[in-house]
Amino acid sequence: MDKQDRIRNFCIIAHIDHGKSTLADRLLEATGRVEERQMRAQLLDQMDLERERGITIKMAAVQIHYTAKDGEVYELNLIDTPGHVDFTWEVSRSLAACEGAVLVVDAVQGVEAQTLANVNLAMNHDLTIIPVINKIDLPAADVDRVAVEIEESLLIEATDALPASAKEGVGIEAILEAVVQKIPPPKGRSDQPLRALIFDSHFDPYLGIIAYVRVVDGCLKPGMKIKWMASGHTAEVAGVGVFVPAMSSCDRLETGQVGFVHAAIKEIGLCRVGDTITDKTDPASEPLPGYKQVKPMVFCGLYPVDSDQFSGLREALNKLHLNDAALSYEPETSAALGFGFRCGFLGLLHSEIVQERLEREFDRELVATAPSVVYKVTLNDGEVQMIDNPAHWPPLGKIDSVAEPYVKSVIFTPEQYVGPCMDLCTERRGEFVTMEYASTNRVVLTFELPLAEILMDFFDTLKSRTRGYATFDYDFSGYRVNNLAKLDIRINNEPVDALSFISHRERAYYKGKALVSRLKEVLPRQLFEIRIQAAIGTKVIAAERVQALRKNVIAKCYGGDVTRKRKLLEKQREGKRRMKSVGRVEIPQEAFLSVLKVGNE
Amino acid sequence: MSSEFAIYVHIPFCMRKCPYCDFVSRPVDRAQRSQYLEALSHEIGNSPWHGSRAHTLFVGGGTPSELTGDEIEQIAEALSKTFSFSPDAEWTIECNPATVSPPSCDRLLELGFNRVSLGVQSFDDRHLSRLGRIHSSQDAIETYQLFRDAGFENINLDLIFGIPGQTCEEWLSDLETGIDLGPEHLALYSLTVEPGTEFGQLRDQGLLEPVDQDLLGDMYEAAMDTTQGAGYQHYEISSFSLPGFECEHNLFYWNNSRYLGFGIAAASYVGGRRWTSTSDWDDYLQGAAKGSVPEASKQELAPRKVMAEEAILRLRTRGGIVASELSDKYAREFDELFGDSVSFLTHHGLLDCTDSRIRLTRKGKLLCAEVWSEFLRADA
Description:
The structure holds 2 protein chains of 2 kinds.
Chain A: E1 7-14, H1 20-30, H2 48-53, E2 61-67, E3 73-79, H3 88-95, E4 100-106, H4 113-124, E5 128-134, H5 143-154, E6 162-163, H6 172-182, E7 195-204, E8 208-217, E9 225-228, E10 234-236, E11 239-243, E12 247-250, E13 258-262, E14 276-279, E15 298-304, H7 310-323, E16 328-334, E17 338-345, H8 348-360, E18 366-368, E19 375-379, E20 384-387, E21 399-414, H9 418-427, E22 431-439, E23 442-450, H10 451-455, H11 458-465, E24 471-482, E25 484-491, E26 494-495, E27 501-504, H12 505-522, E28 530-536, E29 539-546, H13 561-577, E30 580-582, E31 585-587, H14 589-597
Parallel strand pairs in A: 1-3, 1-4, 4-5, 5-6
Antiparallel strand pairs in A: 2-3, 7-8, 7-14, 8-13, 9-10, 9-14, 11-12, 11-13, 15-17, 15-18, 16-17, 19-20, 19-21, 21-23, 21-24, 22-23, 25-26, 25-27, 25-28, 28-29, 30-31
Helix pairs in contact in A: 3-4, 12-14
Chain B: E1 5-11, H1 30-45, E2 53-61, H2 69-82, E3 84-95, H3 102-111, E4 115-121, H4 125-130, H5 137-150, E5 155-161, H6 168-181, E6 185-190, H7 198-204, H8 213-229, E7 233-236, E8 239-241, H9 248-254, E9 259-262, E10 267-270, E11 273-277, H10 281-290, E12 295-300, H11 303-315, E13 321-322, H12 323-330, H13 334-347, E14 351-354, E15 357-360, H14 362-366, H15 368-379
Parallel strand pairs in B: 1-2, 1-9, 2-3, 3-4, 4-5, 5-6
Antiparallel strand pairs in B: 6-8, 7-8, 10-11, 11-12, 13-15, 14-15
């Protein structure tokens, strides 16, 4: 058996909370790659945020060595994948680097919406799937029922599904053995010119960009002149290595291996995820099939709270982008918020995570505008514009029709919550497609929903109406023409671009009213009366007034009071400085958040 | 006048701490009281401004009227030895109703006090108990009469509006009761809930609803109208007096003149330097005994900040400011620094500029914190 036959590249796929990260930790432990005492819980989740939210955002790739029952030592490369629906793109990248997947299903919860989504992705990549039923230690575990669910709703043979408890360390050996026995070794050819697939990257302040690669054909070693086939950039390899899980240099990466390469590249654009690296002197004729290029679905403006911090925000986005290829951003200007960025995300969770990372890891203070989808606007003269920012909406008179993106959404729910789920989807302009039984009392609902309707609080509402039992996933399904209009918010007759949004006309009145009354609550009273209006074109559909400030007196002001009062006022002024102003109206950050909360309840 | 000082003496005792009070004050026993008075005499006697002229004296607290005649004499003596007061200098003492007896009124007069500030707060017993006051409405009226009968010709009543649960009618009734007594001076405050006080804690716990600012505005405006009808001049944001009875001591603060404070947590201001003595009891006693009281805070204000402060403090008063006077005094163009603020505030009806004088309008009085804040922006 040659070296390549003893390599297995695999990932773990699961619905959130089904125990994927715990299982990964156990596999590492069992193969002695990480000593137990050195282990932090869930080692693969490196970012603090991931630990806190209990989800994997960034995958990592770890090489482990396992001595199988046949006596051979195998090199297993475990590529972790994110579990959430928004990260389909990242999942697809890591799947392309693998030959097999361990499918983890919770022995109590059974198959969930993301299980289905991830299995579909894995099947599209022709991966060998090893079903594992995890959490068998739980009193309510029902391995047989879950096996039936796997067979019926995922169409995967599950009679020999492996029972396991990652938490208790049960079944780990059997999983490792199955990985070796069932997953095929990598197919590439070592005698061919180098082709290495970049499936992720991160930025190291000393080494530059670290590209995570799967060597498909040929071999990669330091000193080689390499070329990125898509960007055309060339460089000399400074070093290669594997993750154990820390970065560990080695003298070469051979066909089938997974590891990293760095070539003193400082510029993000030169080393794009999805590109193929080849040998400059002996280049491959064809690049590897590209990844599924996923376009951002959700856009919002991100602005620094303090206008001076624009360049700091740009730097942070640049750095973040190195670790998050799915994030897109370009500068934009808002009359209300100043200079900022229009950012594109895979979904709402992705946008929340990016915002949190910017705030926490990069210490940026942000104002975010309401998320928007990309509308397809057809003008009277036949021109079609793709518009992701309500500020760029054409004038009412020029628009012939507007189409919005729809998603096919799948909801897994216990039978008793079918009613609430149906109601929610209907409220959100959803169109019923099918209802099927996954098992005796679990139902799969399929709806066509406008993406815009699930952007804000759909998931939270679904969870609360089903006591947390329903799971949800969606996939883009196409554009549909609807009766949509841009709702403008004006404050003392000045339109506030950052507060405008697109709405279905039938719901515009209600949403406008809700937003205007929320704004009335959050806008502080000022020296003059403030008029808040919601309008479509020139037609005002809702209005409120914030009365002028009536009384704000520093009543006592004797000797000892002067300093204290002064400090108090200085502190208040500092708070005001952070507000954005439209005309002379000072608008607190909360106002921009309020547009996020309006109109779906 | 600029060489003179206003002198403030702080008496940090009271029978019971009021839930809104943020002055340094607490109940103490007799021994602690005499320790404090001794320290105070030391501090006064050791003042670096020994020998200076003093224009006014204000003894505040706490409850200075809890002191015995001898104790007050001890303070008065220390002051008279250290500073030179003119014979008709305004000497004010703060008194709480039900803490004073007829002989002590006479004694205060003998010692040279000619003005009394009476902490009435309300004439409604329900509101008095809400404020945690230990006296009744009747006590207040009787105490007022005691001072009147003893011969005091300058009496101030402190009244509070915006007490939680108080209506505008109830406030007016309080005010009218006060006016009917015929005091020369009225200090009318809206209740300020300060952090760290019992009310402040209640507010933080959500147990004390802030009073609606429109109601407060109505109350304040009603107070301006009612006092004016009764012949009082509104000579400072919270101060109303019959002609000729403005509080000279407080005018020192608002004219940005210099003052010295003695006692725990007292503030002093001399030549752009402002400092506050420690509010720690032991630190104060030890410091005073050694001849130097530790400072809790001190500030050296840059000239433009002093100028901004003088502007805002003077704006509180009826006279307002004359831009050219301030420009001359500080050798900086007032308009250059504050012209934009003044025109912004004038535009919104908070300031009135006529006859080269800048004054708060009625709206400006209602919103004087905004005015101050605008001037702060300009001095930053």
